[in-house]
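User: Sequence in, structure out. Go.
Assistant: Echoing your sequence, followed by the structure tokens.
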Amino acid sequence: MLNYDIVIIGGGPAGLAAAISAKKHGVEHILVLERDKELGGILNQCIHNGFGLHTFQEELTGPEYAGRFMEQLVEEKIEYKLNTMVLGITKNKIVTAMNREEGMIEIQAKAVILAMGCRERSRGALNIPGHRPAGIYSAGTAQRLVNMEGYMPGREVVILGSGDIGLIMARRMTLEGAKVKVVAELLPYSGGLKRNIVQCLDDFGIPLKLSHTVVDIDGKERVKGITLAQVDENRRPIPGTEEYYPCDTLLLSCGLIPENELSRELGVEISPVTSGPLVNECLETNIEGVFACGNVLHVHDLVDFVSQEADAAGKHAAEYVLHGKRISGSDIPITVTEGVRYTVPKTINPTRMDEKHTVRFRVGDVYKNCYISVYLDEERIIHKKRPVVAPGEMEEVVLSKEQLMAYTELSQITVKIEEA
């Protein structure tokens, strides 16, 4: 059996940043396991710019951003295995993996960092009626075909879902010569960043139809067209609103699901809201010595925030390996109400936390002229005015250790949206 201090599952942006952070915090024997043929994860197919503004104060493409971390990984002499699929993790942190060269391998780790990322919701999960013709792709698959494999999925395109990948692919397909006829969104608001709506749709004259969904797919061998219909407040199609769009391709960008099959088998407690692990301020799960970061924890808007979070996970995993578990103090739950759907982390231990800690969250609807408020028990300590908050954009508040330690009987932290 192989032995390492920290084993990291996933060699995407989260796994790379966590590995580099753990090494810089004093851990020598680190192994990154990646199932793909190269490191970098989804960044390798994201050839558009907009990455790295927070981390490097530069505007980079996805491969450039990943390349910066890969260079650091090599400089730090951190080991990694490609084309290696992890099959299971035990509570004693024995990782079972497999690849062609070594066959089945077992690795005893002192700490494990989960950084497996997420996957797109498929057509099967959307229950769209019609045959199963060629020409239906997830937006991420189409992105890989165009940007890495050199294939055009189609020439006349309709996109369902206005998440960031769908918006970016609307622009990408247009630049490659396709006609993107419409982007339809089931919800009454876009699931993507405002900047992507402007830069990817508005700048190219691509219409966005909110509160619309696909109710039929025409074509048996290949997509010939799709039918859109408006939906009511219960997201049910409204009869008489159907519109037919001739097209040969339908791209689906209808949400991302964190890949937590390994986590569930391990016994990690999963949030029903994010579908990611519930973690404390150290990003440690309910399984001692198992940490989580990146999109496997919750889906992020910006990779820069993934890197920040993974840096913290690497640091805390290193502390766990070098110094053992710190038990002093108690974990204070963070409660969400009035518009806030969840927070990461779910609990904070004021004794154990750093001097400052960023709590990230998403809201459940669009709110204008509102306040983001934080309460320590009944006392409000943060009241931040926002002109608008929306589910498509992650929000954050920063808590300080000094503030929390001043409340010796603190039993609850509450994050909520309040009207102006």
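User: And one key feature?
Assistant: The longest strand covers residues 103-114.
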